[in-house]
Model the fold of this input.
Amino acid sequence: MLAHDLGSLGVGRILTTQELTVRPADLTAHVESSFMGQVIGIGEEVLTTGSFGGGGAREPWGRVCPLPVALGRVLSALAGEEPLRQAAVVLRSISRVRRLGDILVGEPLSVIATARFRSGRVPGATHLTLAVEVHRAGQGGRLGATALACEVGLELRPNAALAGGAAAA
Done:
């Protein structure tokens, strides 16, 4: 099943996410990790999203989200969708970033990613290039305006924990 899922990521395959938002805790974690990295010299790996952010209460829209925070939230949402969920995902590149408007904290967004290139030349890994578009919430089930577009290069490796669990079943 695992090999079939990764094999289904052919050129032209479209991946979509559930509606997502950038939460205030995401901004807090970004500021915290920037401070820790610049002043103290500790990497982001030791931090958790929103470790000082408090509860998950929704804040009104209005604060502009920095581009790295928006991209991180988008990539996290993509990695949680099928069939990427079945693999260990490593970000290799982000290019051709087009910011077509500010993304606001709390604003509902949806993501559509189209596979543009796929390579399995490296044994045990699949390299995938996705054209990613982030859309604002629309009316009546339609997509809203595009807020952000980019290309993302990913390396996918079968998740050993999932493969071991599937073999045991």
Summary: The beta strands are 14-16, 87-99, 109-119, 126-136, 146-158.
